[in-house]
Specification:
2 domains; 69% helix; 162 residues; globular
Length: 162
């Protein structure tokens, strides 16, 4: 596996030659954060593609095959489709909690991803109880789903969330 510790040390020495120590550390953290978020996005795209192929195999169909080679660009097209859809607001909902719920789910997923030791120098959190933290952080996403169902002020949405 590639050792990112050597790369971060080299970047640190190059940055400290040009700017102050605190600004160099800040830029290193931003760079590592961007690398981890890009890795997170790539893993999510691969997992969505694999899930669609497995579900299609269970249902005796081909799955995504039309967009790109072997349907590999279908996930990106779905993201653009979701971004261009109209945002629907529910009349009698608790708007603050209803808008907070998706952010809670995404925050739980990214926080759980933060404790995974990818390589030396490319981790956000490095501590002894990483497995327990991963389990606790990944379970917070359920609270966001329940919050979305409850804050919509509909018994059917609440039953669906539960």
């Amino acid at each position: 596996m590639f050792d990112f510790g050597i790369v971060t040390n080299w970047i640190h020495t190059q940055l400290t030659a040009v700017m102050s120590e605190s600004l160099a550390i800040f830029l290193e953290c931003v760079l590592i954060g961007i690398c981890l978020l890009l890795l997170y996005v790539v893993i999510a795209i691969i997992m969505i593609y694999m899930e669609r192929k497995v579900c299609a195999a269970f249902q005796c169909r081909l799955g995504p095959t039309r967009v790109g080679p072997w349907g590999s660009i279908q996930v990106i097209c779905d993201v653009f489709k979701m971004l261009t859809k109209e945002i629907i607001t529910i009349r009698h909902s608790d708007r603050f909690l209803y808008n907070l719920a998706p952010y809670l789910v995404i925050l739980a997923s990214v926080t759980a991803f933060a404790c995974i030791p990818i390589s030396r120098g490319l981790e956000i959190l490095d501590f002894n109880v990483g497995v327990l933290f991963f389990m606790a952080a990944s379970s917070i996403g359920i609270v966001g789903i329940l919050l979305a169902g409850w804050s919509s002020n509909s018994k059917f949405s609440l039953i669906g969330a539960m």
